[in-house]
Amino acid sequence: MAVVSKESKKKVPVKTIRLKIGAGEATPKPPVGPALGQHGLNIQEFCKSFNAKTEHLEKGAPVKVLIDVYADRKFDFRVTKPVASYLLKKAAGVSKGSSSTGKGSPIATLSRAKLEEIASFKIDDMNAYDIASAARTLEGSARSLGIQIKD
């Protein structure tokens, strides 16, 4: 039987931290500072690398971040595309969703073509096998925001 050295073993994260941060807006203030500080991570290093990694996105677009924390206080992180509700509201031209969904007239309308465009952009981050199922998922999100989808 072969002996496996410590270097060849895959690093296993001891904790995964999930945050939602505006693209290019990571600062040591909450929620970033306290979430990383309690695990002894270098907050400033994370902020610089996160802001550099999200500079291609629209500044302030909310993105989900998954931070893998290792036992030696090192970390890796993955950034998803902007959240679906942000993309839907931006495409519909509204600043916030309806306060009473389904009980009156919709606050905005969105074409099916635009919905499928958002679905094709977002499909890598979704639990969907094809554009049609991703579009159906986004249609439900749009409905809960008070946005009507027109064919």
Automatic annotation (TrEMBL):
<dbReference type="InterPro" id="IPR006519">
    <property type="entry name" value="Ribosomal_uL11_bac-typ"/>
</dbReference>
<dbReference type="InterPro" id="IPR020785">
    <property type="entry name" value="Ribosomal_uL11_CS"/>
</dbReference>
<dbReference type="InterPro" id="IPR000911">
    <property type="entry name" value="Ribosomal_uL11"/>
</dbReference>
<dbReference type="InterPro" id="IPR020783">
    <property type="entry name" value="Ribosomal_uL11_C"/>
</dbReference>
<comment type="function">
    <text>Forms part of the ribosomal stalk which helps the ribosome interact with GTP-bound translation factors.</text>
</comment>
<dbReference type="GO" id="GO:0070180">
    <property type="term" value="F:large ribosomal subunit rRNA binding"/>
</dbReference>
<keyword id="KW-0699">rRNA-binding</keyword>
<dbReference type="InterPro" id="IPR036769">
    <property type="entry name" value="Ribosomal_uL11_C_sf"/>
</dbReference>
<keyword id="KW-0488">Methylation</keyword>
<dbReference type="InterPro" id="IPR036796">
    <property type="entry name" value="Ribosomal_uL11_N_sf"/>
</dbReference>
<protein>
    <recommendedName>
        <fullName>Large ribosomal subunit protein uL11</fullName>
    </recommendedName>
</protein>
<dbReference type="InterPro" id="IPR020784">
    <property type="entry name" value="Ribosomal_uL11_N"/>
</dbReference>
<dbReference type="GO" id="GO:0022625">
    <property type="term" value="C:cytosolic large ribosomal subunit"/>
</dbReference>
<keyword id="KW-0694">RNA-binding</keyword>
<dbReference type="Pfam" id="PF00298">
    <property type="entry name" value="Ribosomal_L11"/>
</dbReference>
<comment type="subunit">
    <text>Part of the ribosomal stalk of the 50S ribosomal subunit. Interacts with L10 and the large rRNA to form the base of the stalk. L10 forms an elongated spine to which L12 dimers bind in a sequential fashion forming a multimeric L10(L12)X complex.</text>
</comment>
<feature type="domain" description="Large ribosomal subunit protein uL11 N-terminal">
    <location>
        <begin position="17"/>
        <end position="75"/>
    </location>
</feature>
<keyword id="KW-0689">Ribosomal protein</keyword>
<keyword id="KW-0687">Ribonucleoprotein</keyword>
<comment type="similarity">
    <text>Belongs to the universal ribosomal protein uL11 family.</text>
</comment>
<feature type="domain" description="Large ribosomal subunit protein uL11 C-terminal">
    <location>
        <begin position="81"/>
        <end position="149"/>
    </location>
</feature>
<dbReference type="GO" id="GO:0006412">
    <property type="term" value="P:translation"/>
</dbReference>
<dbReference type="GO" id="GO:0003735">
    <property type="term" value="F:structural constituent of ribosome"/>
</dbReference>
<dbReference type="Pfam" id="PF03946">
    <property type="entry name" value="Ribosomal_L11_N"/>
</dbReference>
